[in-house]
Design brief:
By secondary structure, the chain is mainly β. The chain has one helix and 17 strands. The longest helix is centred in the last third of the chain and has 5 residues.
């Protein structure tokens, strides 16, 4: 288990539990929860040895006091393919695509309203470093540590400019204040530099989601053995403090 501290200004947020459910040998569902009602889920599916599909969804039902429009937006999911940290020879994301999920749509996008299957590679990117404050491999709507997937500029200035373009719950838990967001979920299909045979890296190194730009981090740790159903709980103060350089 990797300890961390989550901070919003001087506010420490206690993460009560992270639940991870295993559905099969090639697909794992990770659920992140916080006492405030902020929550998310990420489903990892190994389509083949060099293609990983990740479905990321904002499932929040509440938010901490003081969370404005941007802070409620889910912006980053990160994990670590190799041994913990940046190691030569670790598997990396080399590219891929990202689209709006099958029951999702945009809110407040500058260029119009978009629904399921829309390419949002101009609003999301991928990375293979921990400069985002999370783990080594990531998908992100924020600028730090991410390379755009590539696609049309649908909202805001060209390039990544999160939290704008990230994920908001359905319904939003606070006033968006005009921020552009995708309501519900996105699905990323990631190309990998090296073949992998399973999703054991989720258990070995955990996962982490970020809301807003440094507003809230919720880590996940350990995954049950594939093929069964198991609920793991983590209680206590999860700590991570960091500063992003933009």
């Amino acid at each position: 288990m990797r300890p961390s501290i989550t901070r919003l200004s001087s506010l420490a947020i206690v993460v009560s539990s992270v639940t991870i459910l295993a559905s099969s040998a090639s697909a794992d569902l990770v659920i992140f929860t916080d006492p405030s009602g902020m929550s998310a889920e990420a489903e990892f599916t190994l389509l083949n040895s060099t293609t990983l599909q990740v479905r990321l969804k904002n499932t929040s039902t509440g938010a901490p006091a003081g969370f404005g429009g941007a802070a409620q937006i889910l912006t980053v999911l990160s994990w670590d393919f190799g041994a913990a940290g940046n190691n030569p020879g670790d598997t990396q994301i080399t590219g891929g695509t990202i689209v709006i999920g099958p029951t999702s749509q945009t809110i407040n996008f500058d260029t119009g309203s978009y629904g399921p299957g829309t390419n949002v590679g101009g609003e999301w990117g991928f990375g293979n470093n921990d400069t985002s404050g999370g783990l080594m491999n990531l998908i992100s709507a924020n600028t730090s540590g991410a390379t755009p997937f590539g696609g049309p500029n649908l909202d805001g200035p060209a390039g990544l400019d999160g939290p704008q373009g990230g994920l908001v719950a359905n319904p939003p838990v606070a006033d968006l204040g005009g921020q552009g967001a995708i309501q519900d979920e996105v699905i990323a299909t990631l190309n990998l530099s090296l073949a992998i045979s399973n999703l054991n890296f989720l258990a070995a190194n955990g996962t982490m989601v970020e809301f807003g730009s440094d507003a809230l981090f919720i880590p996940g740790n350990s995954a049950p053995a594939p093929g069964g159903l198991c609920v793991l709980a983590m209680a206590g103060v999860c700590a991570r403090r960091r500063r992003r350089q933009s």
